[in-house]
Design goal:
The protein has 278 residues and is mainly α. It is built from 12 helices and 2 strands; from the N terminus they run ααααββαααααααα. It has helices at 2-10, 44-58, 70-77, 81-93, 113-124, 130-151, 154-168, 174-191, 195-203, 205-221, 227-241, 244-263, and strands at residues 97-98, 106-107. It has a two-stranded antiparallel ribbon with strand order 1-2. The chain is elongated. The model is unreliable at 1-31 (pLDDT under 50).
Length: 278
């Protein structure tokens, strides 16, 4: 093995796998020993998953790139294929890899599926509620629009302005308005030019949809039917003007108003602390 690696290096091989064929070694420059007993609390499959993560980082692999096949990994590490398959499946469950029968695993584009599941599970099990979701959004999106004001381009400003004009004509339809509201927040996330903001907004879309509809329905019961619309217009105007401070303040007002409408201004209840698994 060592001689073969030396030969490859002398031939100018750079350590990457252009095709990552099934007969390729997993990491020929840095072969790793995977022990037959758990290390640092990891199962054998967990160690395989960690190895694959390291491989992705070392080989600078990107979405759409393929990993070596299970057979190549099994042969290189001296680990049975069923255990190697478990390691691949663990990474698939986190959304890092896409797997299909008879094909090598492929690195997936960024997705918020796992984070969305965490938020939804927290809500349905009573470990968090819609107030918590909205409070989290308040902090995330107030910072997000500040960046959007600094980084937006003319195309994004035009889209934002077009959206708020369309929203102004749909204030009488709660469901349509909520869908447009999501589009507005996603466009603001895009303008922030940070993929993680869009990930966070998208990953909570289902919970956010519930919170938006609840708030808009209660707004529609009050005398100020256009109140939420004015707040959205303030946010977009500040972003379009490039005023980061005013944009962040407008988003904070937006969420403070939403919390007041949705929860009737009730004070935040303190809950007893629960252990969090690490």
């Amino acid at each position: 093995l060592a001689g073969g690696l030396a030969d490859r290096r002398e031939m100018g091989w750079d350590g990457r796998y252009p095709a990552l064929g099934d007969d390729a070694l997993v990491d020929p420059l840095e072969p790793r020993e995977i022990r037959a007993v758990p290390v640092a609390g990891r199962t054998l499959a967990g160690q395989v998953a960690a190895f694959l993560r390291d491989l992705i980082a070392r080989q600078n692999l990107r979405p759409g790139d393929r990993l070596p096949g299970e057979g190549a990994v099994s042969d290189s590490l001296g680990i049975s294929r069923p255990i190697v398959r478990e390691g691949f499946k663990a990474l698939s469950a986190t959304g890092l890899l896409s797997m299909a029968a008879g094909r090598r695993a492929v690195i997936r584009p960024l997705s918020g599926d796992v984070f969305q599941a965490i938020i939804e599970d927290a809500v349905i099990t009573g470990q968090a509620d819609i107030w918590d979701v909205m409070e989290m959004r308040r902090g995330i999106e107030s910072a997000m629009v500040g960046l959007a004001a600094r980084r937006r381009d003319a195309r994004q400003v035009a889209r934002l302005e077009d959206l708020v004009r369309t929203m102004a004509a749909r204030t009488g339809d709660v469901r349509d308005y909520a869908a447009l509201d999501m589009r507005l927040h996603l466009t603001l996330a895009e303008a922030a030019d940070n993929p993680l903001y869009r990930l966070l907004v998208e990953s909570c879309a289902r919970i956010f949809e519930t919170s938006r509809v609840m708030g808009l329905e209660r707004w529609s019961e009050g005398p100020d039917l256009a109140g939420v619309q004015r707040l959205h217009e303030d946010i977009v105007a500040a972003v379009a003007a490039g005023d980061a401070g005013r944009a962040s303040e407008a988003m904070i007002r937006h969420f403070d108003n939403a919390l007041a409408v949705m929860f009737g201004g009730r004070p935040r209840r303190r809950r007893s602390s629960a252990p969090v698994e690490g």
